[in-house]
Amino acid sequence: MRSFRDKLHEWGLTLPSFLWLMCFFVIPTVIVVSIAFHSASPGGGIAAGFTLETWRGISNPNYPVIVWRTIWISAVTTAACVVLSLPCAYAIARMSVKWRAVVAGLIMLPFWTSFIVRVFAWRTLLNPEGFIQQLLISIGLAAENTTLNYNSGAILVVSIYSFLPFAIMPIYTAAEKFDFSLLEAARDLGARSFYAFCRIFMPGIKRGIVSAVLMVFIPAIGSYVIPDLVGGTDSELIGNKIYQRTFPDRNLPHASALATVTGISVLLPLACVAWWLKRQDEREAKRLAEATARKLSGGAA
Amino acid sequence: MSEESGSDFLVFDRVTKRFGALTAVNDVSLSVKKGEFFSLLGPSGCGKTTLLRMLGGFERPDSGRIYLEGRDITDLPPNQRRVHTVFQNYALFPTMTIWDNIAFSLKLAKKPKGEIDEMVDSILEMIQMSDQAWKYPSQLSGGQKQRVAIARALVDRPQVLLLDEPLAALDLKLRQHMLLELDTIHDQVGITFIYVTHDQGEAMSLSDRIAVINRGRVEQLDGPAKIYEAPQSRFVASFIGDTNFLTGEIVSIDGDYCRIEVEGFPCVSAFNDKNLQVGQRVDLSVRPEKIRVTLNPPLPEKGAGINVFPSKVKDIVYQGVYTKYWLKSGNLQISALKPHSRFLLDQEPITWNDDVFVWWHPDDGYMVEEGAET
Known about the structure:
- The structure holds two protein chains of two kinds.
- Chain A is mainly α.
- Chain A has 13 helices and no strands.
- The longest helix of chain A has 49 residues, at 252-300.
- The A-B interface holds A 179, 181-182, 184-192, 195, 200, 203-204, 206, 288-289, 291-292, 295-296, 299 and B 56-58, 77-79, 83-85, 87, 89, 91-95, 97, 104-105, 108-109, 130-131, 133-134, 152-153, 156.
C-alpha cells in the first residue's frame, strides 16, 4: 500500500515535465488540428464557425503522390543513414578514448555552420559546372546533359548528408557500451567477422538503432528546406506544401489539415510496427515458457 | 624442459610477442600432450594471457610458430581453428537464450537440426541445466553462467579448450565447487584443457602439468608436486606457496649432503641433489610446514644431521587448520606451520617470546642456485 505522501511525491516529480508537454506539445497539436475545422478568413486569419470545407479542399489528387514521395524519400534516407552509421559507430567505439572524442567532435562540427548554408553548398556542388558532375562525366558515369540538382535524387543525397550525424550519435552511444569481447567469443566459436557483426553486434545495439531510425525519420518527414533548395517542381514534399499554404497562401486551415494528415500517415505505420514488435516479444516469451514447461514435464516423466 | 613422447600435440616453438617496448612473451617453447590438463601459472602481466590469446588466434606472434597436431596454426584466424575459449567474463550472448548460446557453434558448422538438438540437450544434461535452457544469460547466477560458458565452448568438441581465469569472478565457496566440476568435466570429455590462472591453488589441484611463467618466460614446467617440492628458481619457490629462504655459500660436501654457511645463522645442511660445488652461493628454500617448533630439542634418535636451531617466538597466528608461527633465529625471520591434533601437541603450549627450537630434516630443504631468478 502506497501512502498519500508517496503519491504526492510522485506527482511532484512528474508535474514539471507533464506541464511542459501539455503547454508545448499537446495544446499546440490540439490547436493545429482544430484550426483544420475552421475556414480561412479573407485577411489570412481563421474565420469563426465549424466547417468540414477544408477537408473537402485537401482531397487534391496531387497530395497522395506528394505524401507517398515524402514517405519513401524519408524511408530511404533513414535506411541509408542507419546502414552508413553502423560501421562508422563501430569504428569509433573501437578507437582509443582520446580519438573517440576527436572523431565525435568532427562529426558534430558541421552543426557550427547554418543548416541552410550547408544545403546551399550542396546546390553548388551538384551544379552542372560543379566538380561532382565534371568528375562523373570524365569517368563516363554521367552524360553532358545530366542534371544532378532539382530532383528527388538530389533531395535524397542532401537529406542523407544532413541527417547522418543524428543516426551516428545514438548508434555510437549504444556501441560504446557494447561488450566487444562478445565479438571475440563469436569469432572463437567459428563465426566470420561479418556474421558476428550482424548476429551479435547489431542485436546488441538494437536500442541505438531504434533511436537512430526515429531521429532521422521524423525530421525527414517534415523537411522542407532541402526539397525547396535542391528539389525540383516535380519533387515537392509535403513540408513544402504546408509551407506554401501557411505563408504565401495564408490559408492556415488548409495547412493545418495537411499537417494533420502527415502526422497520421507517419504515426499509423509506426504504431503498426510497434504493435508487431510487441506481439513478436509476447510470442517469443510464450514460446520460451512452453518450451520450459515441456522440458520440465519431460524431465518428470 | 622435458621432451616426452606424445607431447607434440600442441607446440609453441620459440614464440615471441611484443607490445611496443614491452616483451609480453619472450622466446617461449613448450609442448602439451593430448588430453592433458595444462596450466599456465604466473602473476598478472607475466604473459600467460598473451600466450592463450595467440593460441585462440586473437594475437599473432612476432616470431615463432604454433603447431596443433602437426599443423601450423600461427596465422589462422580464430574462426578457422578448432580451439575454443572460456572467457573470464564468460562473454555469453545476452540477446540469445542459453540454448541458442550453446547451439551457436553447431549452427555455424551447419549441422543437421536433429544432431544439434541432441548435442545441446546432452551437454545441458552434463552441466545439469536442462531446465534452464530457455532462460537468458542475465537470469543466471555467476556459477550457472560459468557452466554455460564451458558447455558452449565444449559442445562441438574442439581440439583444445582454453580457460582464461574462469573462476576469478566467483566467490570462494563457488570457486571450490567449480574446481571439482571442472575436473569432472575434463575427465568426461577427454579434451585438452589449457588453463590460465594466477591462483597457484587452482593450478595445483587441477593440473597434470604446470608452466610457471614470469616476465614472458617459462620458469619451470613440471607436475604440481615437483613444482612445489623442487622449485627450479627462487621465483618459483616464492610464487608457489610460502617458503623460507636461507641464502649462503656451500662450505663443505659430505656424501649426498652439503653444509651451507648462512649469514647470521648457524651452518645448515641440505641434500645436494644438484651436485653443487664448494664455494657456490645458493638459496635454500624450506617450506613452513616442514619446520617443526618445539620447546625441547628433538631426541637424538630422530636422526643425525638434522638442522636444529634455537629461536624465539615473535608472533602466533591461529588459523583453524593450523597455527602459524613467526620466529626469530639469529638475524633471520622464520615462519613455521603446525597442524592441530592431540598427537602432535607438545606437553606445554608455546606462547609469545618463548625460547623454542626449530628443526627440519636436510631432505626437506631445497637448494636453488643463486641467480637462477631471471
